[in-house]
Specification:
alpha/beta, 7-stranded mixed β-sheet, single chain
Length: 221
Amino acid sequence: MHTDAVDRLLSTTSPETDEVLDEMEAQADREGFPTIGHEVGAALRLCARLTDADSVFELGSGFGYSAYWMAPAVGPDGEIVLTEVDEDELDQARAYFERGGYADRAVFEHGDALDVVAEYDGPFDLVLVDHQNERYVEGFEAVREKVAPGGVVVADNVLHSSGDPGFEPEDLERALEDGPPEDDESSLASIIDYYRRVHDDPDFETTTVPVGEGLFVSVRV
């Protein structure tokens, strides 16, 4: 979504990775597993630091890559709740956190993220929405009242999708004006529904952050 020079600058200014993150990325490359990448990882860590987050909830965690980026910012007295329906991936996340020294601040919940979040009262300082695109609105509805004032809800994969079929930022721009094509089978309609939901919510202020595949960052005001 930007020039090669901007990509290089973003990489240059991203926090250093460690052995565990490098192994996670190697696993993702080996298995073709989609991760948020350095740019979004750095943005999530920045959000956690700016909100002084000590309570984070993830809707969809995979093997823990996104959560691991935020773990240093949360601190030993904080808590990150990871949710994942794939038990093997959740076990991998637990192992990575243990090796990285962050298991003391993580809770590993096996199950559907929307079922799990119903068991938590909050408040959350940061929520990452990164499960199925068609359930983004449902995810926001499940967490919005549990987000602390000044807290943020971050939704990933909102400007670009590499799925089959996927969409580009230009497709989203056109669809926001004219609606998605009737024969569209991508997640475009779901992203539009999510954008309109958070944009029209008087309790949240939403900004687009064009890193990775795009983020909507919604601050509870």
